[in-house]
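Long-time lurker, first post. I've been practising inverse folding by hand and with some scripts of my own, and I keep getting stuck on stretches where the structure tokens seem ambiguous. Below is the full token string for one chain I'm working on. Before anyone asks, I'm not after the true native sequence, just a reasonable design that respects the backbone. If someone could post their per-position residues I'd love to compare against what I wrote down in my notebook.
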């Protein structure tokens, strides 16, 4: 082992750093497209090595084709790095199905990369011959479930038909949350999805990008309000330039928010002699100071291209007095117009009050406002569900016996075929049903995720929405609609409870009614094994 490798291996790994209480800082490495004659000379590899040689860099985190543009995979860049305990690999669901993601995870395990950030991923925007079709076979929640199952010892059926359990892995599973949302109907589901990610197996959290320290703080407050105080939370800071600020401000980079007021400052300082370099570096350092003061476990810097820039920001951070962060906190509150906050503002501290949830929100839970999304069709859907598809209630048991009898026939009898035709027609006319066979209409307040969500999100919203609209800006966010519908019936607080939904593609173009009554789909009871016997999360008992 080289002297460099030996010194690197003595530094604490990422998992240890998050529990150290020392507020370490990590740096984002963005991958690249194309490979020169000497692969080790490509900028991300050189940058990664240089960063890890700096004493103040805690870890590096390597992106997976951010912005939906194809790039070199993160683990390829990471394998040039000696100290793998200080590398976080991003895993996204946009380009690979569950088999590809599992293969990727096995490769990471074989190479000793245990730190993983599980993300749904940005919708692909460019590729050979035109725009690619996003995969999104899994989402961030079901990807976390897969990694957790691997940590527990993944159980599958061998070729002989007997159960086989693989040795447990040691993934340190991270997840993201996007608190920088303007409206209640998109922010609150983000928080509920975060709770679902942690319940599924996420062990650490990182925020998305924004420039309002109240919203950063709210993530910790919301977790504490739900009794979750042992999960490390990392604050994500991006070093702006005038050009990047304009990109964030335009909404063209999903999940990254720059308000009008902040954009005005970026324009002002960006037009100066140094193009705003000093202002932007100080802003990043001030954000890190506030995050440290608020008790975040670590800070994370993106937007860097040179190690000298990191050192400059750290030097500025070190120049602050211990209580300066309280001043910076009040400065860095660039909220969007009429932005919703889950907690009340405390004028004495300048941040949200931990024991005062938004009063208007609490009042609206008792008396929800009328919503245009609570349609007659939605009310009828709820009534039909209560009558036919609620386990052990209404006509459930009668329908279950009928479908069980028909399932014993060599081929479906005429009544079964007629009901399937009725199902296809009625669900297409009402919901735009895509005949997936493993129906999530009850999970999504009767908005079909395969038809109305660009990423087919069955476990909650992605982080890409803006002002309540899909990141593709072609429709309303499915989960914003679902939230308003469920809130009208007092069910919003529990909208994302229960095990994650994992769609079974084997059921495509079969009757979802039959699959529900015969316990073939994700609505089967938790104790029931899936049809192939694999170890996968089961759905809630009461949905049909």
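-- Answer (accepted) --
I ran through it position by position. Result:
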């Amino acid at each position: 082992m080289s002297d460099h490798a030996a010194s690197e291996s003595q530094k604490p790994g990422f998992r240890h750093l998050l529990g150290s209480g020392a507020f370490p800082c990590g740096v984002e490495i963005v991958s690249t497209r194309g490979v020169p004659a000497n692969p080790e000379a490509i900028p991300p590899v050189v940058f990664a090595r240089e960063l890890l040689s700096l004493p103040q860099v805690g870890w590096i985190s390597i992106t997976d084709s951010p912005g939906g543009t194809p790039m070199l995979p993160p683990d390829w860049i990471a394998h040039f790095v000696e100290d793998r305990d200080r590398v976080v690999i991003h895993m996204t669901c946009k380009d690979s199905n569950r088999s590809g993601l599992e293969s990727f995870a096995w490769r990471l395990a074989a190479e000793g990369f245990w730190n993983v950030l599980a993300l749904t991923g940005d919708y692909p925007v460019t590729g050979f011959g035109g725009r690619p079709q996003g995969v999104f076979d899994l989402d961030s929640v079901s990807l976390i479930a897969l990694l957790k199952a691997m940590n527990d010892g993944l159980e599958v059926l061998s070729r002989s038909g007997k159960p086989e359990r693989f040795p447990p892995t040691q993934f340190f599973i991270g997840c993201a949350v996007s608190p920088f949302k303007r409206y209640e109907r998109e922010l609150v589901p983000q928080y509920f999805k975060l709770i679902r990610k942690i319940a599924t197996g996420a062990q650490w959290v990182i925020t998305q990008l924004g420039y309002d320290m109240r919203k950063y703080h709210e993530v910790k407050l919301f977790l504490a309000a739900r009794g979750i105080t042992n999960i490390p939370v990392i604050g994500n800071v991006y070093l702006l330039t005038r050009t990047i600020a304009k990109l964030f401000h335009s909404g063209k980079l999903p999940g990254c928010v720059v308000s009008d007021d902040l954009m005005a400052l970026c324009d002002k300082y960006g037009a100066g002699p140094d193009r705003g370099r000093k202002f932007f570096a100080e802003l990043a350092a001030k954000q890190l100071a506030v995050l440290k003061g608020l008790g975040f476990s670590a800070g994370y810097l993106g937007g860097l291209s040179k190690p000298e820039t990191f050192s400059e920001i750290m030097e500025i951070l070190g120049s602050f007095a211990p209580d300066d962060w309280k001043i910076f906190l009040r400065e860095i509150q660039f909220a969007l117009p009429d932005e919703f906050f889950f907690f009340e503002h405390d004028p004495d501290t300048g941040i949200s009050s931990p024991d005062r949830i938004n009063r208007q929100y609490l009042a609206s839970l008792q008396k929800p406002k009328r919503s245009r999304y609570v349609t007659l069709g939605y009310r009828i859907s709820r009534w039909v569900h209560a009558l036919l598809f609620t386990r052990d209630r209404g006509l459930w048991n009668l329908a279950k016996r009928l479908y069980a009898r028909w399932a014993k026939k060599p081929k479906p009898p005429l009544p079964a075929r007629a009901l399937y035709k009725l199902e296809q027609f009625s669900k297409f006319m009402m919901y735009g049903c895509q005949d997936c066979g493993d129906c999530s209409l009850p999970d999504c307040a009767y908005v079909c995720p395969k038809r109305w969500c660009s990423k087919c999100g069955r476990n909650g919203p992605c982080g890409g929405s803006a002002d309540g609209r899909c990141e593709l800006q072609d429709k309303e966010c499915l989960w914003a609609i679902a939230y308003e519908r469920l809130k009208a019936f007092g069910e919003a607080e529990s909208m994302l409870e229960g095990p994650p939904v994992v769609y079974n593609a084997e059921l495509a173009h079969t009757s979802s009614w039959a699959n529900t009554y015969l316990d073939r789909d994700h609505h089967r009871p938790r104790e029931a094994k899936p049809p192939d016997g694999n170890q996968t999360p089961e759905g809630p008992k009461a949905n049909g």
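A couple of notes from the structure itself: The CA atoms of residues 215 and 435 lie 40 Å apart. The first helix runs from residue 3 to 9. Happy to go over any region you disagree with.
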